[in-house]
């Protein structure tokens, strides 16, 4: 019988990181070698255990703190941009935008965190429709939108 | 990078960054600090971000660097020898669970296993811990991990394997320790 499979080779096999030839060699050896199979299963068990660890989401208050610290632009900078949300993946962004919008409309300086957190969470369940009046017409995004509308209208 | 873009990026990459930070540091406060510092640096160096590549990986790379810097600063307090005795608080949760490995599908045992795993992970030296976390927890490919850690794929490959072996050793040591304490 040929030599046992190196450990690093077994780990790569588990991770799907072996090329076809190496995989075939490993499979041939494993089919005939119980110790290597046992080692493979042991390593795989640890990979699974690590993968099963519950994921930690960014705490809402930290998300808001990051946004407060880094999104230094004045509120109108956000409100004058048309927000056209992509259908998928935009909910969390919408939540943040809702928080920003709330801040800009309700809060002068230091806003209590609760309404923001509430908005942050509430917005996760709904899409945010921008008020047309808040949407300025002069930036690139809206120009693109207008161009689309125009194309539709000019077809006659 | 404008404000709206940044808000969107927080929303998109924040969870992943925080989860990775938590795996690296093993506690909430350090994970928070890592994430905050990573976002700060990301914004400072926004111009070096290549927008044709995933923002996630770029942020994880920065976060990993932040972590390495922090490790260097707290070298002594952070590095725990693999055969060091478990902390005293082990005694408190040791008696929560009367039996071990057999009942792996039992929810309680599973939670205990995951708890042990997190503790074992914390004991790994940084390069192995990061490699294992990125591979097994975040599900990144070896190539992606190579980009995040800034080392060749061959190095990633051996770190992941050695990391897994060390993880197993640390896990088993913790498990044995728990057994003797109950
Ligand atoms: Zn063998």
Q: For the record, give the distance between the C-alpha atoms at the N and C termini of chain B, rounded to a whole number.
A: 55 Å
Oligomeric description of these chains: heterodimer
Ions, cofactors and other bound molecules: zinc ion
Shape verdict of chain B: globular
Portion of residues in beta strands of chain B equals: under 5%
Number of helices of chain B: 9
Q: What is shown here, in short?
A:
The complex is a heterodimer of chains A (156) and B (182). With 156 residues, chain A is mainly alpha-helical.
How would you describe this structure in keywords?
heterodimer, A: 156 residues, mainly alpha, 62% helix, B: mainly alpha, Rna Polymerase Sigma Factor, Chain: A, Arc Repressor Mutant, subunit A, 2 domains, 74% helix, binds zinc ion
Characterization of the model:
The complex is a heterodimer of chains A (156) and B (182). In chain A, 62% of the residues lie in helices and 0% in strands. The N and C termini of chain A lie far apart (79 Å). Chain A has a domain of 47 residues. Chain A is built from 8 helices and no strands. Chain A is mostly helical. The longest helix of chain B is centred in the C-terminal third of the chain and has 29 residues. The relative contact order of chain B is 0.12. Chain B has 2 domains: 76 residues, Rna Polymerase Sigma Factor, Chain: A; 79 residues, Arc Repressor Mutant, subunit A. With 182 residues, chain B is an all-alpha fold. Chain B is built from 9 helices and no strands. The chains are: A mainly alpha (156), B mainly alpha (182). Chains A and B meet through helix 1, helix 3, helix 4 and helix 6 of A and helix 1, helix 2, helix 6, helix 7 and helix 9 of B.
